[in-house]
User: Fold LppX_LprAFG lipoprotein from Spongiactinospora gelatinilytica.
Amino acid sequence: MKKSATAMRTVKSAAFAIETEGSPPVPVRKADGRLTAAGDADGTVQIEVIGSLQELAFVLLGDTVHFKGPTGGYQTMTRRQLAAFYDPSAILDPAKGVPALLAASTKAATQAEEQVGGVAAYRVTATLPQAALSTVVPGVQQGADATLWLDKSNGRLVKASVPLGKGDASGTVIVTLSEYDAPVQVTAPK
Assistant:
């Protein structure tokens, strides 16, 4: 896991996807986009707000967040305001994102070798602490015994499957990272 944490600290950009199965106790139901290590990002997110699913397009550029719902144009807020809900750009942050999550994991055990999205990967089970996990998956109130897929060639995280909740309010959050270090230019919407 330390090799993977170190490998993730050097990532310059990535594509990300977050999806849920069942009813895990988190507000983000689906998200996808691109992000840079500098903190810029763009994509879409589906968030459950008071029992209603809302889809937003977003662009994070510097300290400004541009977001757009299903109607109307883009509005803005500060990155600090967004961080109260979810800041997807934190995923690559070496101090609190995936690198920190991997470094803080415990009880890691390699289970098998598998192909994930065309990438040869080790399937690893590990315990992820709540504090580090909540940066990557917003709203998480518990640690989790997760399954991770780590690229065999470089140790980077390819996929994570994180079971959360109990009873009717339970499910799985699946995070997928791809297109590492591909050129990403995030621009403000017009």
Observations:
- The mean pLDDT is 94.
